[in-house]
Amino acid sequence: MTDTVDTTPAPPVPPEQIKAIPVRHYGRWVAGVGVIAILVLIGIAFSNANINYSIIPQYLFDPGIVSGAWTTLYISVLAMVLGVALGIILAVMRLSSNPVTSTVSWLYIWFFRGTPVLVQLLLWYNISIVFPVLNLGFYKNEMKDVMTPVLTALLGLGLNEAAYMSEIVRAGIQSVDLGQTEASHALGMTQGQTLRRVVLPQAMRVIVPPTGNEFINMLKTSSLAYAVQLPELIRQATDISSTSLAVVEMYFVACIWYLFLTTIFSIVQYYVERRYARGSTRNLPPTPLQRMKKYLRMFGSFRRPEVAR
């Protein structure tokens, strides 16, 4: 009887599991400790400062402060609407092949972007020195009665904003491929129809994010209307501080209101950007609530990462 030899290959020996040793980043720990130490020192300095923090909640909803916050909000909205509407017109004029309209638009942008907003507000506020009477034929009145603080702030902020919005709109329009315009003209659309139905809807993806930033900046820039006697937030806070002698405390109250307003509109801007980004990206960025849930899940299941095999 012949013995059979087993020629079956032996099973491969699995490799020894790699033990990953995480790299120690001592610089991160030093930087983190340093930042925490600076924050602690700042907190100690403010806690020992001569500030009566207890009266801040008392004035947070003072009728004067609430009225000033409302004035800040509506003058910012009106000025932004004026700036956007005029900015679109200026952008179209700038892109026009007509040398007159293009030059006028360029000169407007050059002037309003090159001079400070505060100077423009003061010029509008004192324009009655140059033109004592406003005579439009169908309407005649003293210029000092026409140029109220509200109108002064609206013109000063809105006309200045139009110069910046025109550049934002122009960049958005130029971001749309020229073939879109040529295809629209081939379908028989006029220049205006092409702009309204084809170009601007696609340009909104580029226009919306900086426009949101401009509005948030407008909320803060409106504080310059304090110089033209507009009873906005800073003006009301200053008036209250002159009687209560709580100067720094009232500025803290104003800061809280500005932070509240800018936070609300930052959230609105985030969702508007998501809406107009739907056609340009496959994966939309997570909402703040989704991001918070993700971080909570990561915190709940926190463990040292393993090396992928």
TrEMBL record:
Taxonomic superkingdom: Bacteria
InterPro entries according to UniProt: AA_ABC_transptr_permease_3TM, ArtM/GltK/GlnP/TcyL/YhdX-like, MetI-like, MetI-like_sf
Entry's Gene Ontology cellular component terms: ATP-binding cassette (ABC) transporter complex
Domain ABC transmembrane type-1: 69-269
Topology class, membrane: Multi-pass membrane protein
Record flagged with keyword Transferase: no
Subcellular location: Cell membrane
GO BP: amino acid transport
Keywords (A to Z) from UniProt: Amino-acid transport, Cell membrane, Membrane, Transmembrane, Transmembrane helix, Transport
Coiled coil region boundaries: none
Keyword Transmembrane: yes
Principal subcellular localization: membrane
Pfam families xrefs: BPD_transp_1
Segments crossing the lipid bilayer: 29-49, 69-93, 251-272
An MF annotation (GO) of this entry: transmembrane transporter activity
Family the entry assigns: Belongs to the binding-protein-dependent transport system permease family.
PANTHER family in alphabetical order: L-CYSTINE TRANSPORT SYSTEM PERMEASE PROTEIN TCYL (PTHR30614:SF0), MEMBRANE COMPONENT OF AMINO ACID ABC TRANSPORTER (PTHR30614)
The protein's name: Amino acid ABC transporter permease
